[in-house]
């Protein structure tokens, strides 16, 4: 998969310097993970490249100049072991890009294949939740940092014909949006990347359809640059829309009307539920 950097960086990251920063990338041996690793290293970061297959992980890390760590993101304890190993090797952790994910193209009208269902849920959702749980204490030990998870355009607009992929990616978007304000108070910013169809192995079985239709797919380098923009952002809880031919930017969700009392006045969230609670948006 291409990881070329032959395009002009966005002004938001023109002067981004990550020297002295340590980043962890899951799914690092694949298209988006490789592009992200290359972009982070180019900006001066040291990168722990993580993937499930040891041989592929070591090969990709060797080619890119990263340090390999074999990781099954569906294993809760393994996430914590790898983060600890990264801290011991580099001295800390500043950035975690929780990128590992799969598609399995199960149809909603078909009988549920429980094994495939559990697989996509464990990689796409558990892999993010377990990664956050492992990374947050490490980031706090550095005084803060950035978490970025790979979601999908399917997390913003449902993808007909792939309801379970849509389910997992919508879950990642909701999780990140809910975490954003909470973790920001701890000095940790969290974002989701929501690319449309990107030029990675995940579209290999339908690639010919895109080619026949002359449909533009997103280069991994564009997703990598958006990752850098998320790292540079001072906001938290954003879902970055990445679509071919469109400037990547945080997606602006339409506001949901607040609850109202019988007299028509707005009802706020009860403060005793969460002293830092804000009205849903």
Brief write-up:
The protein has helices spanning 31-42, 54-64, 76-90, 114-141, 163-184, 207-213, 220-232, and strands at 22-26, 46-51, 67-70, 95-98, 145-150, 188-195, 238-242, 249-250.
Report on this structure.
The protein has 281 residues and is of the alpha/beta class. Helix 1 crosses helix 7, helix 3 packs parallel to helix 4 and helix 4 packs parallel to helix 5. An eight-stranded mixed beta sheet has the order 3-2-1-4-5-6-7-8, with helices on both faces. Helix content is 38%, strand content 14%. The N terminus is likely disordered. The chain contains seven helices and eight strands; from the N terminus they run βαβαβαβαβαβααββ.
Shape descriptor reads globular
- Helical residue percent? 25-40%
- Count of helical segments? 7
* Spatial strand order of the main sheet: 3-2-1-4-5-6-7-8
Largest sheet: 8 strands, mixed
Beta-strand content estimate: 5-15%
Structural class: alpha/beta
Order of helices and strands: EHEHEHEHEHEHHEE
State the total count of DSSP E strands: 8
The N- to C-terminal Cα distance equals 38 Å
Radius of gyration equals 19 Å
Low-confidence stretches: 1-6
| Overall mean pLDDT | 89
